[in-house]
Write a structure and sequence with these properties.
single chain, alpha+beta, Beta-Lactamase, four-stranded antiparallel sheet, 8 helices, globular, disordered N terminus
Length: about 270
């Protein structure tokens, strides 16, 4: 179900303006720009940035900070990297790679029939958990993460675009992307605030992009929403995430109602 405040048409209109202003800042003929123009993936740089800006502007709890977001395709290749601030230093620089890592994780551990958010993995990877050690299994490719000209980070020319970043992240902010037929096509990762706020924003970004046809998940609502069930350090369900304590929890628990997932077309 699309959020009434931002229709797909409105998103594309806003995205077009962002793309014009961004492309005007540098050469658009390089290989990174060519990857961005590849319309085989249903989301481009400007559409992702427009969705992130809309989601960041809403109430999400947390610290109300500017954000990074990254999308990867099903093969783990980075499609786009964006930020919401006026410049790349307006949000935590370290969150650029974390957002890509989250996208890679959600894509790597979600399937056609089961979506796992990075928030769902927190408890499972703790000592004694069913997935302990997972966070060490697929390291970030630092050559991809930190290569190229830093001035291009968060633009259509970001060095990560078109490359596999790798990495596993196990706190909130990464969600798999599903098209209207229920096919998993990649994932989005969001970083820059508390991990609970990151999850809330990522959920809204996915909703605004129309790629939330989630087939099923481990939460009580049958999706990949964040689960707050940790007591005395133990998750009752096994897929719980800590409460970040800055007003994120009621917003996160309400996401299936305020921004309900869509159902695949038969």
């Amino acid at each position: 179900m699309r959020t009434p405040s931002l229709t797909r048409l409105a998103l594309r209109t806003l995205a077009a303006g962002i793309l014009v202003s961004t492309i005007g800042c540098g050469d658009s003929t390089g290989p990174d720009a060519a990857a961005i123009r590849d319309r085989r993936f249903p989301v481009n740089f400007s559409e992702l940035r427009a969705a992130l800006e809309q989601a960041r502007a809403e109430q999400n709890g947390g610290l109300n900070l500017d954000m990074w977001a990254t999308i990867v395709d099903r093969d783990g290749k980075v499609v786009a990297v964006v930020f919401t601030g006026d410049g790349r230093g307006d949000q935590w620089p370290g969150s650029r790679v974390i957002s890509a890592q989250k996208a890679n994780t959600a894509n790597s551990f979600s399937l056609e029939a089961l979506a796992l958010s990075t928030a769902n993995l927190f408890s499972a990877v703790q000592p004694g958990g069913s997935l302990f050690g997972l966070q060490e299994s697929n390291p970030v490719d630092t050559r991809v993460a930190y290569g190229g000209d830093p001035q291009g980070y968060g633009t259509p020319h970001d060095f990560m675009v078109g490359k596999r970043i790798g990495g596993v992240n196990v706190f909130g902010g990464g969600l798999a992307l599903y098209d209207a037929q229920g096919n998993i096509i990649g994932a989005v990762g969001v970083s820059g605030d508390t991990s609970c706020a990151d999850h809330n924003i990522a959920w809204k970004v996915r909703d605004f992009l129309g790629l939330d046809y989630v087939p099923g998940g481990v939460s009580a609502t049958g999706d990949d929403n964040i689960i707050f069930d940790i007591t005395d350090g133990t998750s009752a369900h096994g897929f719980g995430h800590p409460d970040c304590g800055n007003g994120e929890r009621p917003i996160g628990e309400g996401l299936p109602t305020t921004n309900p997932i869509s159902h695949p077309m038969s």
